[in-house]
Amino acid sequence: MTSAVRTLIQERLATLLDEKPILVWYDADEALADVFDGFARPGVRKIDARASVLRARRDADGVLGAVLAREPGVAAALLVYVASARPKSADDQSRDPFESFVRIGGVFGWDPADGLDSLARRAMPARSAEIDALFASSRRVTLADVEALGEAGAYPLLLRAFSTEDPVEAAARILMDPKGSARPLASAGAWAEWASMALASFGIALPSERNAAESAFARWILFSEFWLDVDGDVPPHVAAVPHADVAVRDRVYRLCDRLRGALEWRDRYAQVANAVEAELQLGMLAEGTSSWGKRDTFAAEDRAALLHVQRECLEGHFDVARDAIDVRRHSLWRREPDRLPLWNVAEQALNLLVRSRLAGVSQSRAGRPTSEHVRDYADREHGLWHVDRAHRWFERAVAECREREILADLIELARHEHLRVMGRVQSEFLDAVARDGWPPAMELQAATFASRVVPALEAGTRTAYFLLDALRYEMGHDLAAHLEQLGDVSIRAAATVVPTTTPFGMAALLPDADKDYGCIVDDDGLQPTIRGTVLPDLTARLAYLRTAYGDRVSDERLEILAEKTDAALKTIVKRGDLLVVRSEDIDKAGEGNSPLIARRLMASLLDDVAGLAKRLVTAGVQRFVFASDHGHILLNEQEGEVVREPPGTWALKKRRCRIGSAAADSDGVRILRADRLGLRGPVRDFVAATGFRMFARGHAFAHEGISLQECIVPVITLDARTQGTATKGAINVRVNYKDTRFTSRVISIRLLLETPDLFVQEAPVRLVVLAGGRHVGRVADCDVRDPSTGLLHLARGREVSVAVVIDSDFTGKDIELRVEAATGTGVVLGKLTLQNACID
Questions:
Q1: Which of 272, 452, 676, 702 fits a disulfide with 625 by CB distance 3.0 to 4.6 angstroms?
Q2: What is the CA radius of gyration of the chain?
Q3: Measured over all CA atoms, what is the biggest interatomic distance in the chain, rounded to whole angstroms?
Q4: In angstroms, rounded to a whole number, what is the distance separating the alpha carbons of residues 475 and 606?
Q5: Sign of the CA dihedral 296, 301, 302, 306?
Q6: 736 CB-side CA count, 13 A
């Protein structure tokens, strides 16, 4: 059993390390060396200077930079143990090898309050007289001497009832398990001991009535943590509420950490904390106050912290906002279904603002060649596509957050900054295209079949050719990340043909598009051609492809293939060398829905593509080529402007362009020579709406124009590895929910990674929501979800909350929440079935 004094020292160290991640511990007599040896805290690097001060200093230097930079996977804090006293004079301190660490961090063992005698009195207040007598003796007092006093038992009845004399542990059990503790406390003398312990350890005189004592103690402890956390800067209406003194701060903090840290107690803690919050009317914390600290006492603090993040973002203090988000990242209150989405909106808005501001302060691209605009957009590490992806992730978070009105100002700012920055980029890009023409010297969309598909077919490699309507370049990077576990993946940026419409873009992905691609005007308007073959629609394109490759090619829509059994997929793959997989899901999501619904739908489409690719690998496909006909723009409903078309004769009229012959110019458009855009045929002018404007109202989603978002598309190649047989390893994921049924379409579940393998500290997994083998829900964005891949990254032994959104049209009787290995081999690591009790 850990002694009270040893526990107190560990509490004190933990508190100091929370305040400053660098701590030097001076212990002249090595009286507490045993405590240092036994101290263990995740993320804390311990360095012992007993053997060699110089070696310890070198080791500390090696860790210091990583701790201060918060580098992941290194160390979150540094604790240095020095078996000597800290020098007293300033001159002597300047020669101390660890004084610089004290200056930038903190020190333990220097203040008299850190002495063993003071620690003993604070740990065992009921034994103060005996402790005084012990230290008044002439002999050297050791930690063992002090612990021996505790073993004598100041609270024998509590020790018998709870197998502990630790006031924190006893208080935790009494608070969190009132029914289980009622009987032991009812025994003669036990209540008196508990009242004595509460007064000595936490400073509260309990009421004599038992029920009143329970609520009074809960209010005392939780309000004390809050008061101590904010240094007494509490709202005026609770300034007179009684609370513990700073002398017992460490014990109060440890008790509250114990209450929130135990998985089985979290629901009970939330219930108690909410009751105290309501009693003290702390809900007004969220109304503009700065009275909140770093701890996690009340839900009101979480709301206040969220608004604090919004205010800091609005004022441009992005680093402060980031720190505030990091402080609340593992908050107990984030597991509430309405809290996770809000925090995700705040974090994604911050990410977008940071990306936009960095892009906004970069050097102007005005006057530079089109090729440089494309290079700056498509660069893997620093390209502007990162801004567009951050915007998509942000808008997806907004779409998944039902209570987003509280962050309306932050949402508006993020949208404004993105549009401002990318609007400037678009203006300069269109100027460059008007000056230089299109496409620049780079990989061309029209060469995709010849460069990626033909070599594989000539080598006898079974190939799947995914034609993905409206897949943007930045989305291609997310798809590539999904696919990396399946083999060798490459992604390149390609310049599309114009106009960026489905008939023209899909025709450009066919055989010989690189040799003789053009257009004609017929009764139906402007149509693409290859070698004189008119290709106005899907039927014509498939006929053209079969003419070129005969029965070597088969095609099907992605959603049809996804419904096939594994055996059926193998049969389809064996029919020929080339399987064409078509998906219009992205385009349909954008065309047929509001921007909010479109973003919700798009969030799952890449998962569907990657999921089918995994199954096709097993079915025998060796090479995959993923290509897109065009990109798209997707704005907020209020962002798009409408321009009037100039007078002229038009062979093609689309939301973002007019093609034909312009009779005059007009505001908000650029008139470009069609032949300078690679558009060979009987048309003279290409009229592009400038910026992100359109020729028609009511559209947030569009393509057909000339922008980096529409004209740069990904070409992804995957050479698959042979998939081994899946066997379940020693990893298990526990899936928990507060009930056996769900009553809301948004629920918060808890996941815990368990494994006896000490070398496994983290594992990526995939969570799917199934009913009858069909996907009926999705995981909302959260801290542990990789937005690129959709995988959840779980840390061993740390429970996390994950929000799950269940499809609005699901009416089945139950769902299965299934956690699968990220390898795509189908290994199930954990699952939970919940009954549907929704009342819509």
A1: 452
A2: 33
A3: 111
A4: 8
A5: negative
A6: 14
Name the packing angle between helices 178-186 and 190-202 (round to 10°).
120
Question: How many beta carbons lie within 10 A of that of residue 21, not counting itself?
Answer: 22
Structure token pair of residue 627 = 């290509």
C-alpha 801/C-alpha 267 separation (Å) is 13
Cα–Cα dist 565/733, whole Å: 27
Query: pLDDT tens digits for 718-754?
Result: 999 865 444 445 688 999 888 888 888 888 888 998 8
SS (H, E, C) 422-468: HHHHHHHHHHHHHHHCCCCCCCEHHHHHHHHHHHHHHCCCCEEEEEE
790: which 2 tokens? 């959709």
CA atoms within 13 A on the CB side of 543: 9
**Do residues 471 and 714 make contact, with C-beta atoms less than 8 angstroms apart?**
yes
Q: Render the burial of 297-333: b for 16+ CB within 10 Å, e for the rest.
A: bbbbbbbbbbbbbbbbbeeeeeeebbebbebbeebbb
Number of Cβ within a 10 Å radius of residue 756 = 8
b/e per residue 573-591 (b: at least 16 CB within 10 A): beebbbbbbbbbbbbebbb
Task: List C-alpha distances in Å: 600 to 343, 379, 393, 395, 606.
Answer: 17, 27, 10, 9, 12
What's the CA gap between 767 and 772, in Å, rounded? 16
CA distance 530 to 351: 44
Q: What are phi and psi of 580, to 5 degrees?
A: -95, 125
- With a threshold of 0.85, does the pTM exceed it? no
Distance between CA atoms of residues 285 and 223, nearest Å: 13
Q: Which residues pair with 519 in a beta bridge?
A: 528
Interstrand relation of 746-754 and 732-736 (parallel, antiparallel or unpaired)? antiparallel
Q: Cα–Cα distance between 633 and 639 in angstroms, integer?
A: 11
For residue 812, what are its two tokens?
């089945």
Partnered with residue 653 across adjacent β-strands are 658
Rounded to an integer, what distance in angstroms lies between the CA atom of residue 74 and that of residue 42?
11
Helix axes 408-436, 299-314, angle to 10 degrees: 40
Overall average pLDDT of the 684-688 stretch: 97
Number of other CB atoms surrounding residue 65 within 10 Å: 10
Please state, in angstroms and as integers, the Cα–Cα distance from residue 663 to each residue in 498, 525, 547, 676, 693, following that order: 21, 19, 41, 19, 21
Identify whether the C-beta of residue 608 lies closer than 8 Å to the C-beta of residue 479.
Answer: no
Task: Give alpha helix (H) positions in 207-298.
Answer: 210-229, 249-261, 266-280
